[in-house]
Amino acid sequence: MKEFKMVNIKNYLSKEMSVIHPVQYSPKGYFVPEIVSEYGQISSFFKVMPFLFPYMIKTLFNIRKSYKSLKYNPGFVKSYITESELIELETYAKKLGCSQLGYIKVPTEYIYSNKVILFENAIVLTMDMKKQFMSKAPSIQTSQEVWRAYAGLGKVVNQLSEYLRKKGFQAQAGPALGGETNYTFLAQKAGLGFIGKHGLLISKLNGPSQRIAVVYVNIENFPITETSEYNWITDFCETCNRCVRKCPSDAIYKKTEQLENGGKRHIDFKKCAIPFSKTGGCSVCIKECTFFNTDYEKIKHLNKGKINS
Ligand code: SF4
Ligand code: SF4
């Protein structure tokens, strides 16, 4: 089958736009459908597609919109945000359905080798996936919830970018389905949680059950803070390994791989693509994660003294 190629931000840039490039050893970035089409069972995926179709269409529409709207960025007006504007922005993002947000200066190592970004500062956003549906993984209801979050968060990043442009800032919406940078690393760095052995962000409020997206913006005075609050999760994962045992395709590495760019590779995405394509969203590793089934604070309390916390 011919390789399925999604849109690339590079096709939507004009000569006037200055961009930030990845470093030489950055890994290549893919959209989820590109991985599924190349390594998954595409005939099985076509069978589940009708159940996911409305969300898929919205997701793809929002990706194109995020790139096409770059031309609507205002000329340079301002790059500093006031405290009250920041509060307004956060309130608006929450109203749109975003669960958490944090701020970050994007390390160039986290830009994928085949992509670019326009601004070095960014807002990282998450949208929760409802536990009542994720607990049924693998199932159509679970996959619908996964794609609902992709579609919903894809819309939120566009709405937030439009909002910022109206306020005089320049913005680039990063698609929820996979974008220009490694979102889980950015979310961890922005203090929204910590990456578990399954490669997903584990947050205090919703465990591993959320999707992540980013809005890059020319704002230079975000309250960027780093935290080591969640570092204990690495040690806990070493004592747990439940997701490694439960993954239907042995895709989760028991020993996480260290990459040249300082990042880590937690799963073999070629293996993951098979169950993912069969069900349209697998998510067994979310359902089986200890942080999905037990409260974050309870796990931390029970393991106090046993791990570095
Ligand atoms: S989505 Fe499914 S196949 Fe992929 S890593 Fe998680 S459990 Fe394994
Ligand atoms: S299931 Fe266990 S090992 Fe896997 S990410 Fe969750 S806590 Fe870590």
Topology overview:
Elements: H1 32-39, H2 42-68, H3 83-95, E1 100-105, E2 121-128, H4 131-134, H5 140-166, E3 171-174, H6 183-189, E4 194-195, E5 201-202, E6 210-217, H7 232-240, H8 242-246, E7 252-258, E8 264-267, H9 269-279, H10 284-288, H11 290-293, H12 296-302
Antiparallel strand pairs: 1-2, 2-6, 3-6, 4-5, 7-8
Helix pairs in contact: 1-9, 2-5, 2-9
One iron/sulfur cluster is lined by residues 198, 247-249, 251-252, 267, 272, 275-276, 282-285.
Provide an overview of this structure.
This protein has 309 residues and is of the alpha+beta class. The chain has one domain. It has helices spanning 32-39, 42-68, 83-95, 131-134, 140-166, 183-189, 232-240, 242-246, 269-279, 284-288, 290-293, 296-302; strands at residues 100-105, 121-128, 171-174, 194-195, 201-202, 210-217, 252-258, 264-267. The strands form 3 sheets. The chain has a 4-stranded antiparallel β-sheet with strand order 1-2-6-3, sandwiched between helices. A two-stranded antiparallel sheet has the order 4-5. Helix 1 crosses helix 9 (269-279), helix 2 packs parallel to helix 5 and helix 2 packs across helix 9. The chain is globular and about 50 Å long. The model has no long low-confidence stretch (mean pLDDT 93). The protein binds iron/sulfur cluster (SF4) (2 copies). Residues 198, 247-249, 251-252, 267, 272, 275-276, 282-285 line the site of one iron/sulfur cluster.
Residues in helices, as a percent range: 40-55%
The CA-CA distance between the termini, in Å, is: 49 Å
Strand content: 5-15%
Largest sheet: 4 strands, antiparallel
- The helix count comes to 12
By helix and strand content, what is the structural category?
alpha+beta
Bulk shape: globular
Low-confidence stretches: none
How do the SSEs run, as a string of H and E? HHHEEHHEHEEEHHEEHHHH
Number of extended strands: 8
How many distinct domains? Answer: 1
State Rg: 19 Å
Sheet with the most strands: spatial strand order:
1-2-6-3
The overall average pLDDT, rounded, is 93
Bound molecules: iron/sulfur cluster
